[in-house]
Amino acid sequence: MLAVNGLIVLAGALSGTFLNVYLWKSKQDYAMIGWFTIAQQVAVGLTFWIGGKWVKQYNKMNALRAGVVLSGVFYLLVLWGGADIVHWIWPLGLLLGLAIGLFWLAFNVVYFEVTDRENRDLFNGWVGLLGSVTGIVGPWVSGLLITWLKGDKGYRLVFTISLVIYALCVVLSFFLKKRKNGGAYHWREPITQLQSKGSPWRLMTPGLIAQGVREGVFAFLIGLLVFVATKQEAKLGQFTLITSAISLLTYWLAGKWYKPRFRNTGMLAGALLLWIVILPLLWKTGYGALLIFGIGTSVFMPLYILPMTSSGFDLMGTNPETVEKRVELVVLRELSLMVGRLLGTFIFIIVLSISQAPLIITILMLALGAAPIGGWMFVRKLLKAEKSA
Protein backbone atom coordinates (compact mmCIF):
# COMPACT_ATOMS: atom_id res chain seq x y z
CA MET A 1 0.00 0.00 0.00
CA LEU A 2 2.76 2.44 0.91
CA ALA A 3 4.72 1.57 -2.26
CA VAL A 4 1.70 2.12 -4.51
CA ASN A 5 0.94 5.37 -2.72
CA GLY A 6 4.57 6.47 -3.05
CA LEU A 7 4.64 5.86 -6.81
CA ILE A 8 1.39 7.71 -7.40
CA VAL A 9 2.60 10.66 -5.35
CA LEU A 10 5.96 10.58 -7.16
CA ALA A 11 4.28 10.76 -10.57
CA GLY A 12 2.15 13.64 -9.31
CA ALA A 13 5.19 15.39 -7.83
CA LEU A 14 7.10 15.12 -11.12
CA SER A 15 4.33 16.44 -13.36
CA GLY A 16 1.57 17.82 -11.16
CA THR A 17 3.83 20.47 -9.64
CA PHE A 18 4.46 21.93 -13.10
CA LEU A 19 1.13 21.16 -14.78
CA ASN A 20 -0.44 24.46 -13.69
CA VAL A 21 2.75 26.31 -14.65
CA TYR A 22 2.54 24.67 -18.10
CA LEU A 23 -1.03 25.93 -18.43
CA TRP A 24 -0.05 29.37 -17.14
CA LYS A 25 2.75 29.73 -19.68
CA SER A 26 0.24 29.00 -22.45
CA LYS A 27 -2.36 31.42 -21.09
CA GLN A 28 -1.72 33.69 -18.10
CA ASP A 29 -5.14 33.49 -16.51
CA TYR A 30 -5.77 32.68 -12.84
CA ALA A 31 -9.44 32.00 -13.57
CA MET A 32 -8.51 29.31 -16.12
CA ILE A 33 -6.44 27.50 -13.47
CA GLY A 34 -9.37 27.84 -11.07
CA TRP A 35 -11.85 26.35 -13.54
CA PHE A 36 -9.44 23.49 -14.26
CA THR A 37 -9.38 22.78 -10.51
CA ILE A 38 -13.18 22.97 -10.27
CA ALA A 39 -13.58 20.50 -13.14
CA GLN A 40 -11.30 18.09 -11.28
CA GLN A 41 -13.16 18.43 -7.99
CA VAL A 42 -16.60 17.97 -9.55
CA ALA A 43 -15.38 14.77 -11.22
CA VAL A 44 -13.71 13.55 -8.02
CA GLY A 45 -16.90 14.01 -5.97
CA LEU A 46 -19.18 12.35 -8.53
CA THR A 47 -16.70 9.49 -8.99
CA PHE A 48 -16.59 8.81 -5.27
CA TRP A 49 -20.39 8.79 -5.01
CA ILE A 50 -21.14 6.75 -8.16
CA GLY A 51 -18.02 4.58 -7.98
CA GLY A 52 -18.76 3.66 -4.38
CA LYS A 53 -21.12 0.92 -5.60
CA TRP A 54 -18.36 -0.65 -7.72
CA VAL A 55 -15.82 -0.49 -4.90
CA LYS A 56 -18.16 -1.94 -2.29
CA GLN A 57 -19.94 -4.66 -4.25
CA TYR A 58 -17.36 -5.62 -6.86
CA ASN A 59 -13.56 -5.39 -7.25
CA LYS A 60 -12.05 -2.36 -5.51
CA MET A 61 -8.57 -3.26 -6.81
CA ASN A 62 -9.79 -2.86 -10.39
CA ALA A 63 -11.10 0.59 -9.47
CA LEU A 64 -7.67 1.46 -8.10
CA ARG A 65 -5.96 0.24 -11.30
CA ALA A 66 -8.48 2.08 -13.48
CA GLY A 67 -7.60 5.30 -11.68
CA VAL A 68 -3.91 4.76 -12.38
CA VAL A 69 -4.54 3.91 -16.05
CA LEU A 70 -6.71 7.00 -16.57
CA SER A 71 -4.00 9.15 -14.99
CA GLY A 72 -1.67 7.80 -17.65
CA VAL A 73 -4.25 8.53 -20.36
CA PHE A 74 -4.50 12.11 -19.09
CA TYR A 75 -0.77 12.69 -19.54
CA LEU A 76 -0.86 11.02 -22.94
CA LEU A 77 -3.45 13.59 -24.00
CA VAL A 78 -1.36 16.40 -22.52
CA LEU A 79 1.64 15.18 -24.54
CA TRP A 80 -0.50 14.96 -27.67
CA GLY A 81 -2.23 18.32 -27.23
CA GLY A 82 0.77 20.40 -26.16
CA ALA A 83 0.04 24.09 -25.59
CA ASP A 84 -3.44 23.66 -27.13
CA ILE A 85 -4.69 21.91 -23.98
CA VAL A 86 -5.71 25.33 -22.60
CA HIS A 87 -8.69 25.05 -24.96
CA TRP A 88 -9.72 21.73 -23.36
CA ILE A 89 -9.63 22.69 -19.69
CA TRP A 90 -13.02 21.19 -18.76
CA PRO A 91 -12.75 17.73 -20.43
CA LEU A 92 -9.14 17.31 -19.28
CA GLY A 93 -10.03 18.44 -15.76
CA LEU A 94 -12.94 15.99 -15.65
CA LEU A 95 -10.70 13.16 -16.89
CA LEU A 96 -8.04 13.87 -14.28
CA GLY A 97 -10.72 14.12 -11.58
CA LEU A 98 -12.15 10.77 -12.65
CA ALA A 99 -8.70 9.19 -12.42
CA ILE A 100 -8.00 10.75 -9.02
CA GLY A 101 -11.44 9.77 -7.72
CA LEU A 102 -11.20 6.11 -8.71
CA PHE A 103 -7.73 5.68 -7.26
CA TRP A 104 -8.28 7.44 -3.95
CA LEU A 105 -11.72 5.94 -3.38
CA ALA A 106 -10.29 2.44 -3.61
CA PHE A 107 -7.11 3.39 -1.74
CA ASN A 108 -8.98 5.00 1.17
CA VAL A 109 -11.27 2.00 1.62
CA VAL A 110 -8.33 -0.44 1.61
CA TYR A 111 -6.39 1.91 3.89
CA PHE A 112 -9.23 1.75 6.42
CA GLU A 113 -9.31 -2.04 6.17
CA VAL A 114 -5.58 -2.56 6.80
CA THR A 115 -5.19 -0.05 9.67
CA ASP A 116 -6.84 0.50 13.04
CA ARG A 117 -7.05 3.32 15.60
CA GLU A 118 -3.73 2.39 17.20
CA ASN A 119 -1.60 2.40 14.05
CA ARG A 120 -3.51 4.84 11.84
CA ASP A 121 -1.43 7.86 12.89
CA LEU A 122 1.72 5.80 12.25
CA PHE A 123 0.53 4.83 8.76
CA ASN A 124 -0.44 8.44 8.00
CA GLY A 125 2.98 9.53 9.21
CA TRP A 126 4.63 7.13 6.77
CA VAL A 127 2.36 8.36 3.96
CA GLY A 128 3.46 11.91 4.78
CA LEU A 129 7.07 10.76 4.96
CA LEU A 130 6.93 9.16 1.52
CA GLY A 131 5.11 12.19 0.17
CA SER A 132 7.92 14.37 1.46
CA VAL A 133 10.64 12.17 -0.08
CA THR A 134 8.93 12.20 -3.46
CA GLY A 135 8.30 15.91 -3.02
CA ILE A 136 12.04 16.40 -2.57
CA VAL A 137 13.09 14.33 -5.57
CA GLY A 138 10.27 14.85 -8.08
CA PRO A 139 9.90 18.64 -8.48
CA TRP A 140 13.64 19.25 -8.13
CA VAL A 141 14.43 16.78 -10.94
CA SER A 142 11.55 18.14 -13.05
CA GLY A 143 12.70 21.72 -12.57
CA LEU A 144 16.24 20.84 -13.64
CA LEU A 145 15.08 18.88 -16.70
CA ILE A 146 12.73 21.66 -17.85
CA THR A 147 15.48 24.25 -17.34
CA TRP A 148 18.18 22.22 -19.12
CA LEU A 149 16.01 21.22 -22.07
CA LYS A 150 14.51 24.71 -22.31
CA GLY A 151 10.76 24.74 -22.39
CA ASP A 152 8.46 22.35 -24.18
CA LYS A 153 11.00 19.53 -24.58
CA GLY A 154 11.57 19.47 -20.83
CA TYR A 155 7.85 19.40 -20.05
CA ARG A 156 7.26 16.58 -22.53
CA LEU A 157 10.06 14.50 -21.00
CA VAL A 158 8.71 15.05 -17.48
CA PHE A 159 5.17 14.07 -18.53
CA THR A 160 6.58 10.96 -20.25
CA ILE A 161 8.45 9.90 -17.10
CA SER A 162 5.21 10.21 -15.12
CA LEU A 163 3.49 8.05 -17.71
CA VAL A 164 6.10 5.32 -17.19
CA ILE A 165 5.69 5.52 -13.40
CA TYR A 166 1.92 5.09 -13.74
CA ALA A 167 2.54 1.94 -15.81
CA LEU A 168 4.88 0.61 -13.10
CA CYS A 169 2.25 1.37 -10.47
CA VAL A 170 -0.33 -0.73 -12.35
CA VAL A 171 2.07 -3.67 -12.34
CA LEU A 172 2.79 -3.24 -8.62
CA SER A 173 -0.93 -3.08 -7.81
CA PHE A 174 -1.32 -6.75 -8.80
CA PHE A 175 0.72 -7.66 -5.71
CA LEU A 176 -2.04 -6.24 -3.50
CA LYS A 177 -4.40 -8.93 -2.30
CA LYS A 178 -7.96 -8.87 -3.54
CA ARG A 179 -10.24 -7.61 -0.78
CA LYS A 180 -13.60 -9.06 0.23
CA ASN A 181 -16.69 -7.47 -1.26
CA GLY A 182 -19.21 -5.73 0.98
CA GLY A 183 -22.99 -5.80 1.07
CA ALA A 184 -25.45 -3.57 -0.75
CA TYR A 185 -24.38 0.00 -1.49
CA HIS A 186 -26.56 2.64 0.19
CA TRP A 187 -26.75 5.61 -2.16
CA ARG A 188 -28.40 7.92 0.39
CA GLU A 189 -26.11 7.08 3.32
CA PRO A 190 -24.26 10.45 3.27
CA ILE A 191 -27.63 12.26 3.51
CA THR A 192 -28.86 9.84 6.16
CA GLN A 193 -25.79 10.49 8.32
CA LEU A 194 -26.28 14.24 8.12
CA GLN A 195 -29.99 13.96 8.95
CA SER A 196 -29.40 11.75 11.99
CA LYS A 197 -29.21 13.89 15.14
CA GLY A 198 -26.80 11.57 16.95
CA SER A 199 -24.40 11.10 14.05
CA PRO A 200 -20.83 12.34 14.69
CA TRP A 201 -20.60 13.12 10.97
CA ARG A 202 -22.74 16.21 11.59
CA LEU A 203 -19.62 17.64 13.27
CA MET A 204 -16.99 15.98 11.10
CA THR A 205 -18.57 17.04 7.78
CA PRO A 206 -18.33 20.85 8.32
CA GLY A 207 -14.82 20.31 9.68
CA LEU A 208 -13.84 18.57 6.45
CA ILE A 209 -15.51 21.30 4.38
CA ALA A 210 -13.37 23.86 6.22
CA GLN A 211 -10.27 21.80 5.45
CA GLY A 212 -11.23 21.70 1.78
CA VAL A 213 -11.71 25.48 1.58
CA ARG A 214 -8.01 26.01 2.27
CA GLU A 215 -6.46 23.12 0.39
CA GLY A 216 -8.61 23.54 -2.72
CA VAL A 217 -6.89 26.86 -3.48
CA PHE A 218 -3.50 26.50 -1.80
CA ALA A 219 -2.85 23.22 -3.63
CA PHE A 220 -2.41 25.03 -6.95
CA LEU A 221 -1.86 28.67 -5.98
CA ILE A 222 1.41 28.44 -4.02
CA GLY A 223 3.44 26.79 -6.77
CA LEU A 224 2.00 29.21 -9.29
CA LEU A 225 2.91 32.22 -7.11
CA VAL A 226 6.48 30.94 -6.79
CA PHE A 227 6.78 30.70 -10.57
CA VAL A 228 5.16 34.10 -11.14
CA ALA A 229 7.58 35.65 -8.62
CA THR A 230 10.72 34.01 -10.05
CA LYS A 231 9.88 33.10 -13.68
CA GLN A 232 12.07 30.01 -13.19
CA GLU A 233 10.93 26.37 -13.06
CA ALA A 234 14.21 25.54 -11.28
CA LYS A 235 13.25 27.92 -8.45
CA LEU A 236 9.90 26.19 -8.08
CA GLY A 237 11.72 22.86 -7.92
CA GLN A 238 14.07 24.30 -5.30
CA PHE A 239 11.11 25.65 -3.28
CA THR A 240 9.43 22.24 -3.30
CA LEU A 241 12.70 20.48 -2.45
CA ILE A 242 13.25 22.63 0.65
CA THR A 243 9.68 22.48 1.92
CA SER A 244 9.39 18.73 1.29
CA ALA A 245 12.70 18.05 3.04
CA ILE A 246 11.31 19.77 6.14
CA SER A 247 8.02 17.86 5.79
CA LEU A 248 10.08 14.67 5.70
CA LEU A 249 11.31 15.38 9.22
CA THR A 250 8.05 16.72 10.64
CA TYR A 251 5.90 13.86 9.34
CA TRP A 252 8.42 11.33 10.65
CA LEU A 253 8.33 12.96 14.08
CA ALA A 254 4.53 13.18 14.00
CA GLY A 255 4.16 9.55 12.98
CA LYS A 256 6.46 8.53 15.82
CA TRP A 257 5.25 10.74 18.69
CA TYR A 258 1.80 12.09 17.81
CA LYS A 259 -0.65 10.02 19.91
CA PRO A 260 -4.47 10.21 19.83
CA ARG A 261 -4.57 11.98 23.23
CA PHE A 262 -2.67 14.94 21.72
CA ARG A 263 -5.02 15.42 18.78
CA ASN A 264 -7.25 18.18 20.19
CA THR A 265 -4.50 20.52 21.42
CA GLY A 266 -2.21 19.70 18.52
CA MET A 267 -4.85 20.35 15.89
CA LEU A 268 -5.71 23.77 17.34
CA ALA A 269 -2.04 24.75 17.51
CA GLY A 270 -1.51 23.55 13.94
CA ALA A 271 -4.51 25.48 12.60
CA LEU A 272 -3.41 28.73 14.27
CA LEU A 273 0.21 28.41 13.17
CA LEU A 274 -0.78 27.57 9.58
CA TRP A 275 -2.60 30.91 9.51
CA ILE A 276 0.20 32.90 11.17
CA VAL A 277 2.81 31.83 8.58
CA ILE A 278 0.77 33.58 5.86
CA LEU A 279 1.33 36.99 7.50
CA PRO A 280 4.82 37.65 5.99
CA LEU A 281 3.17 37.73 2.55
CA LEU A 282 1.39 40.97 3.57
CA TRP A 283 4.69 42.82 3.18
CA LYS A 284 6.02 41.08 0.08
CA THR A 285 5.08 38.15 -2.15
CA GLY A 286 8.63 37.50 -3.36
CA TYR A 287 10.45 34.19 -3.25
CA GLY A 288 11.82 34.76 0.26
CA ALA A 289 8.41 35.43 1.82
CA LEU A 290 6.87 32.49 -0.04
CA LEU A 291 9.70 30.27 1.21
CA ILE A 292 9.04 31.34 4.82
CA PHE A 293 5.38 30.49 4.28
CA GLY A 294 6.27 27.13 2.70
CA ILE A 295 8.66 26.17 5.50
CA GLY A 296 6.13 27.14 8.16
CA THR A 297 3.42 25.12 6.43
CA SER A 298 5.73 22.08 6.26
CA VAL A 299 6.47 22.32 9.97
CA PHE A 300 2.92 22.82 11.22
CA MET A 301 0.75 20.91 8.73
CA PRO A 302 1.18 17.48 10.44
CA LEU A 303 -0.19 18.94 13.69
CA TYR A 304 -3.43 19.77 11.91
CA ILE A 305 -3.86 17.19 9.16
CA LEU A 306 -3.04 13.98 11.04
CA PRO A 307 -5.78 14.38 13.68
CA MET A 308 -8.27 15.45 10.99
CA THR A 309 -7.51 12.44 8.81
CA SER A 310 -7.20 9.82 11.54
CA SER A 311 -10.30 10.96 13.44
CA GLY A 312 -12.44 10.79 10.32
CA PHE A 313 -11.40 7.22 9.63
CA ASP A 314 -11.77 6.31 13.32
CA LEU A 315 -15.48 7.20 13.02
CA MET A 316 -15.80 4.50 10.36
CA GLY A 317 -14.68 1.88 12.87
CA THR A 318 -16.90 2.91 15.78
CA ASN A 319 -19.09 -0.21 15.60
CA PRO A 320 -19.89 -3.11 13.23
CA GLU A 321 -22.58 -1.04 11.48
CA THR A 322 -20.18 1.79 10.57
CA VAL A 323 -17.54 -0.73 9.47
CA GLU A 324 -20.09 -2.28 7.11
CA LYS A 325 -20.82 1.19 5.70
CA ARG A 326 -17.15 2.18 5.38
CA VAL A 327 -17.39 2.77 1.63
CA GLU A 328 -20.38 5.10 2.01
CA LEU A 329 -18.58 6.96 4.81
CA VAL A 330 -15.45 7.32 2.68
CA VAL A 331 -17.74 8.80 0.02
CA LEU A 332 -19.26 11.20 2.59
CA ARG A 333 -15.77 12.26 3.68
CA GLU A 334 -14.67 12.99 0.10
CA LEU A 335 -17.90 14.80 -0.80
CA SER A 336 -17.37 17.03 2.23
CA LEU A 337 -13.83 17.87 1.12
CA MET A 338 -15.10 18.45 -2.43
CA VAL A 339 -17.70 20.96 -1.25
CA GLY A 340 -15.01 22.86 0.65
CA ARG A 341 -12.57 22.82 -2.27
CA LEU A 342 -15.23 24.03 -4.69
CA LEU A 343 -16.30 26.77 -2.29
CA GLY A 344 -12.73 27.97 -1.83
CA THR A 345 -11.99 27.89 -5.56
CA PHE A 346 -15.21 29.74 -6.45
CA ILE A 347 -14.26 32.47 -3.96
CA PHE A 348 -10.79 32.58 -5.55
CA ILE A 349 -12.21 33.01 -9.07
CA ILE A 350 -14.71 35.69 -8.00
CA VAL A 351 -12.14 37.75 -6.07
CA LEU A 352 -9.47 37.57 -8.78
CA SER A 353 -11.99 38.50 -11.47
CA ILE A 354 -12.25 41.83 -9.62
CA SER A 355 -8.55 42.38 -8.88
CA GLN A 356 -5.32 40.39 -9.24
CA ALA A 357 -3.17 42.75 -7.16
CA PRO A 358 -0.61 40.93 -4.94
CA LEU A 359 -2.14 42.45 -1.77
CA ILE A 360 -5.61 41.21 -2.74
CA ILE A 361 -4.22 37.70 -3.31
CA THR A 362 -2.52 37.77 0.11
CA ILE A 363 -5.69 38.96 1.88
CA LEU A 364 -7.60 36.20 0.12
CA MET A 365 -5.01 33.68 1.33
CA LEU A 366 -5.42 34.98 4.88
CA ALA A 367 -9.19 34.59 4.67
CA LEU A 368 -9.07 31.08 3.19
CA GLY A 369 -6.14 30.13 5.42
CA ALA A 370 -8.27 30.74 8.52
CA ALA A 371 -10.64 27.93 7.51
CA PRO A 372 -8.72 25.19 9.43
CA ILE A 373 -9.39 27.10 12.66
CA GLY A 374 -13.10 26.78 11.89
CA GLY A 375 -12.52 23.11 11.11
CA TRP A 376 -11.06 22.56 14.59
CA MET A 377 -14.04 24.31 16.17
CA PHE A 378 -16.39 21.79 14.55
CA VAL A 379 -14.46 18.62 15.41
CA ARG A 380 -13.11 19.58 18.84
CA LYS A 381 -15.99 17.81 20.59
CA LEU A 382 -15.16 14.61 18.73
CA LEU A 383 -11.48 14.96 19.64
CA LYS A 384 -12.30 15.53 23.30
CA ALA A 385 -14.59 12.49 23.30
CA GLU A 386 -11.75 10.41 21.80
CA LYS A 387 -9.39 11.58 24.55
CA SER A 388 -11.90 10.64 27.24
CA ALA A 389 -12.45 7.22 25.64
UniProtKB/TrEMBL annotation:
The keyword tRNA processing belongs to this UniProt entry's keyword annotation: no
Keyword flag Membrane: yes
First and last residue of the signal peptide: none
Membrane spanning residue stretches: 7-24, 30-51, 63-82, 88-111, 123-149, 155-176, 212-230, 236-254, 266-283, 289-306, 335-354, 360-379
Membrane topology: Multi-pass membrane protein
InterPro entries: MFS (IPR011701), MFS_trans_sf (IPR036259), Sugar_transport-like (IPR052528)
Positions in coiled-coil regions: none
Localization per record: Cell membrane
UniProt keyword annotations, A-Z: Membrane, Transmembrane, Transmembrane helix
Top-rank taxon, per record: Bacteria
GO MF annotation, one: transmembrane transporter activity
Main location: membrane
GO cellular component entries: plasma membrane
Entry protein name: MFS transporter
Natural source organism: Paenibacillus azoreducens
